[in-house]
Amino acid sequence: MNHIKTRKYAPRATVLATATLAAGFSPLTAQAADADAGAVQATDLDKVQVRGSWFAPSSPKFTAELLDTPKSVAVVTEKTLQEIGATNLVDALRMVPGITFGAGEGGNSTGDRPFLRGFDGQSNMFVDGLRDVGTQTREVFDLEQLEVVKGPSSAYGGRDSGGGSINLVSKTPKLKNETSVSMGVGSDRYARGTVDANYVLGDGIAARLNLLRHAADIPGRDAANVSRWGIAPSVAFGLNGPLQVIASHYHLETDDLPDAGGFPYADPATGTTSGRPLVPDRNNYYGLKDRDFQRTRADISTIDASYDLGGHKLRNIARLGNTSNDYLWTQPDDSKNNPNKYGTLWRRTNDRAIDTRTFADQLSLTGAFRTGALAHSYSAGVEYSEEKSSKGRYLIGGGGTNNAIDGTQSCPTTGAATGWNCTDFYAPDPNDPWAASHPVTRSDKALDIRQTTRTTSVYAFDTIELSPRWLLNLGLRWDDYDTEQVTPVAGKAPTVLGNSEAFLNYQAGVVFKPTANGSIYLSYGTSSTPPGMDSGEGNDSISAAIQNLKPQETKNYELGTKWDLFGNRLNLTAALFHTEMNNARVVLDNGSTQNAGSKAINGVEIGVNGQISDRWSVAGGYTWMDSELKDNGYVCSVPSRTGCPAPGVWIVSPNNGNVFPNTPRHAATLWTTYAFPFGLTIGGGASYVDKQYGDAANSKWIPAYTRWDAMASYALQDNISVQLNLQNLTDKIYFTKAYASHYASIAPGRSATLALNVRF
Q1: CA distances (Å), 399 to each of 53, 287, 447, 592, in order?
Q2: Percent with pLDDT over 90 in the chain
Q3: SS3 258
Q4: b or e along 97-135 (b: 16 or more beta carbons within 10 Å of the residue's beta carbon)?
Q5: In this structure, are residues 480 and 514 in contact, taking their beta carbons and an 8 Å threshold?
Q6: What is the number of H-type helices and E-type strands within the chain?
Q7: Which of the chain's ends, N or C, has fewer CB atoms near its CB within 10 Å?
């Protein structure tokens, strides 16, 4: 792909990154191309696309090197994922400060739910540049790299919550015979095996196969465990010519005894359900072995075809996706204050049975040209997507006095008299015989809630070189969005909700280059969040109250700088940003919902990343976020699930001025490795996350924490190594997810894994 390089300065040497790119600030360690013989050479980096000095996103919508892109973007490489021992998306993103995670419940599906700059990013997930709807617990075995775009990014991907997006880049074939096998064992019955095999089949033809088998208990937790397997074959034609075609399929299945990691918010001093989670014993598992399960499946087929026209490239990528997420798991409910009153807990059951099918197609043209004295690097395209979801549930019957599948119950006692739905808060028994008296059936599929979302989009990006020191970055996208949700009602006409809207988003940034290895930029970008954008799986579900509303609109101002120093071995970044949503959906004093609220967040991001020497790498990142719910509308003085019954009246929200949920004020990471000349590499790091509120009232929260990790690897031969990872070294008790009302999810305890890695 062609990208603008300023004419005044000589091209910069390509370097090798061994951790994450911090175009915004996220961790990166780099090795110079002229590193000594013990270092990996840049010519071996055929796994990762490189533009200029630093790794870059795979998306053709980025029309300049990241050094010259006026946007905070982070790229986590496959090498980094291996070093830190990541096995899922939560692991992979823990080295990116400012990203937190939310918990699921009845209305919000259980699965990956990242928060970016304080905004829920569950619906802003992409695979190879195409939106990946359907809640999942995503794996890393088939990932080439992971890309995070910070701030409103509707110009890149369409509908957006306002905080940014995450793109997973799949592994594809290359013209090199190479196979990598990794076999790992560890504490808590950890066992993991992966295979990455690439073969050249003919002239410009190659195939690649990635395999996974993984099983483990949850460190520091009773009963809960995970089990999954995956396969991802792909074949490519024309890798040495202008016409290239890549066909691939991704399959992943999981079968877990799920762990909400849950402990309820409870304050014994005040006898309320507010405050931090109450933890009598971190090992306590409040679920039931013979009841709880979570099974997911993902099948994604992709055809990626491109043709190099000489200075321009025409590309079409088409995808069919089919995912499912079925679960029935225990939420440690606190609504009746059972832990404080009786020392018991209500085992509320959350359930979901959802299938999501998608079709998406993206046609793009990229390249470079000149208009007089101006040089252009452009990307333009059209997209179409169709998403269909079918959502049902599981029904529970049988004996016991408290056997509802959801809702809340008081538990003055426990055991058989409660149908085993109430348990001892301090000594729960996951082996209670619940299932014998509670038959579970799938709801009638004819009554599943069905939602169909269709989107047609047109976009264009251009980086214009105004002079050797000044660049202008422009982007524009128009989306025609239409969604419809049908809820069947037995013996009656179905309830139909829908929203149709067209919205325009854009971004603009100016870049000043005082030298070839540095940039200073000022940018502006927008996003649109229409009703129903999450296909009924999260916070943006459509309802009668919001179906006719306009999209929420978010805008972002950012001032930043990026520098490659010490011969392009060290990268420094810094950014100031201000994000605001001025037409947030809130309830007015008449009980209606309108686009009348506002919220804003100010922040600072700083990163220092790269090679202190040829053998010593360091990566660090820090973010400060000051968020405020400026106008949160009105609330009922006597709240009820059914509205605002008498004598309730609508009053100004007492949450005005509060902090965003899931938004720590401070967060920081540090990771460093040192490679000795005799084959030993050691590394260690820490992650700090400040206090986070779970709710808009700021009455429920999880405390700040610092987590420490370490690794060591030793090369037995050039192609054989062993790697030891120690996670959560101090066995710190901390929480990773805060749900708004009921509970928070505790993090895994200390664990150790040892892997044998062979390449041939």
Answers
A1: 66, 19, 25, 41
A2: 67
A3: coil
A4: bbbbbbbbbbebbbbbbbbbbbbbbbbbbbbbbbbbbbb
A5: no
A6: 4, 46
A7: C
Whether 402 shows a pLDDT value over 50: the answer reads: no
Radius of gyration over every alpha carbon of the chain, rounded to an integer in angstroms: 26
Q: Sort strands 73-77 and 20-22 into parallel, antiparallel or unpaired.
A: antiparallel
Q: What is the 3-state secondary structure (H, E, C) of 103-170?
A: CCCCCCCCCCCEEECCEECCCCEEECCEECCCCCCCECCCEEEEEEEECCCHHHHCCCCCCEEEEEEE
Is there a domain that residue 289 lies in?
Answer: yes
Q: Please, which residues have CB within 8 angstroms of residue 641's CB and are 6 or more apart in sequence?
A: none
Helices (H), 162-209: none
Domain span holding position 545 = 16-759
What whole-number distance in Å separates Cα of residue 332 and Cα of residue 318?
A: 42
d(CA 252, CA 130): 18
Token pair, residue 343, equals 């020392």
What CA–CA distances, in Å, run from 528 to 133, 159, 661? 17, 5, 20
Q: Are 272 and 418 in contact (CB under 8 A)?
A: no
Contact yes or no for 257/292 (Cβ under 8 A):
yes
| Encoded amino acid at 454, one letter | R
Q: Which residues contact 454 (CB under 8 A, 6 or more apart)?
A: 384, 385, 386, 387, 481, 482, 483
b/e string for 610-639 if b means 16 or more Cβ within 10 A? bbeeebebbbbbbbbbebbbbbbbbbeeee
Residue 542 has which token pair? 């459509």
Whether the predicted pLDDT of 33 surpasses 50:
no
Q: In whole angstroms, what separates CA 463 from the centre of its chain?
A: 28
Using an 8 Å Cβ cutoff, are 350 and 406 in contact? yes
Q: What's the structural domain count of the chain? A: 1
Of 132, 133, 356, 141, the residue nearest 233 (C-alpha): 141
Pairing of strands 293-308, 30-31: unpaired
CB 179 within 8 A of CB 760: yes
Asked whether residue 7 is assigned to any structural domain, the reply reads no
Q: What is the pTM of this model?
A: 0.89
Is 250 inside a domain boundary? Answer: yes
Which CATH number characterizes residue 309's domain?
A: 2.40.170.20
Q: Tell me whether residue 297 is exposed, middle or buried, using C-beta atoms within 10 angstroms of its C-beta: 0 to 12, 13 to 18, 19 or more.
A: middle
DSSP state, residue 623: E
Task: With CA atoms as reference, report the closest residue to 221 among 332, 301, 69, 99.
Answer: 332
pLDDT tens by residue, 647-659: 889 999 999 999 9
Task: Output the CA–CA distances (angstroms, integers) from residue 132 to 157, 206, 361, 630, in the order listed.
Answer: 11, 26, 13, 32
Please, what is the end-to-end C-alpha distance for the chain in angstroms? 31
For residue 20, is it within any domain? yes
Q: Evaluate whether 84 touches 146 at the Cβ level (below 8 Å).
A: no
Which DSSP letter does residue 745 get?
Answer: E
Residue type, 647: P
Summarize pLDDT for 671-730 with one digit per residue, the tens: 899 999 999 999 999 999 999 999 999 999 999 999 999 999 999 999 999 999 999 999
* 527 vs 154: CA distance, rounded Å: 5
DSSP letter string, 477-525: EEEEEEEEEEEEETTEEEEEEEEEEEEEEEEEEEEE-SSTTEEEEEEEE
**Cα(121)–Cα(113) distance, integer angstroms:** 6
What angle (nearest 5°) sits at the alpha carbon of residue 58, between those of residues 237 and 117? 150
Strand partners of residue 303: 247, 318
Average pLDDT, the chain: 87
